[in-house]
């Protein structure tokens, strides 16, 4: 056997392995970016556990929303088939130590995003990401991700929900 051929196949295996590890790191980094914001770096095992838990929470939330959608459709049929969109729609999801606030409203809302952010900060939340998207039909969707300013104190989700309900209604 030619010694140069053995060396060449070893280099090929090394480069294939290096590319595999690079691809794995890229995919892992992408997975980490899809999770709710974290206070600190986590081990690979913790990220995978967190991702599994997050997917299960999202799956449960989808089920809840499907059931709510079905109930609303039934109520709509009972009321003569006219769809009733109740605005504003507020949803607060607690995921471990993070909080996700979703709000759907129309252009004629009597509040601004800054009012929502102020309430969150007053209740001990640090806003990590906030977005407002305009959709067809003059509907605005707000999505806000928060984490507690202090992990020892946390965020009083029920109080946040109560104050935001008062603001948007």
From TrEMBL:
This is BHLH domain-containing protein. It comes from Hibiscus sabdariffa. SMART domains: HLH (SM00353). Residues 8-58 form the BHLH domain. It is found in: Nucleus. Residues 48-82 form a coiled coil. InterPro entries: bHLH_dom, HLH_DNA-bd_sf, MASH1/Ascl1a-like. Keywords: Coiled coil, Nucleus, Transcription, Transcription regulation. It comes from the Eukaryota. SUPFAM superfamilies: HLH, helix-loop-helix DNA-binding domain. The keyword Disulfide bond does not apply.
């Amino acid at each position: 056997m030619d010694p140069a051929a053995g060396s060449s196949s070893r280099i090929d295996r090394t480069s294939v392995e290096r590319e595999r590890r690079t691809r794995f790191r890229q995919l892992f980094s992408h997975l980490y970016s899809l999770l709710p914001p974290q206070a600190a770096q986590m081990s690979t095992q913790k990220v995978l556990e967190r991702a599994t838990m997050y997917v299960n929470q999202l799956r449960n939330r989808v089920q809840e929303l499907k059931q709510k959608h079905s109930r609303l459709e039934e109520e709509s049929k009972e009321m003569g088939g006219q769809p009733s969109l109740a605005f504003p729609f507020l949803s607060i999801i607690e995921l471990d130590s993070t909080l996700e606030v979703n709000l759907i409203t129309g252009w004629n809302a009597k509040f601004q995003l800054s009012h929502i952010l102020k309430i969150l900060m007053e209740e001990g939340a640090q806003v990590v990401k906030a977005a407002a998207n305009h959709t067809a039909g003059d509907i605005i969707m707000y999505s806000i991700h928060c984490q507690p300013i202090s992990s020892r104190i946390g965020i009083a989700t029920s109080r946040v929900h109560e104050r935001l309900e008062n603001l948007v209604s």
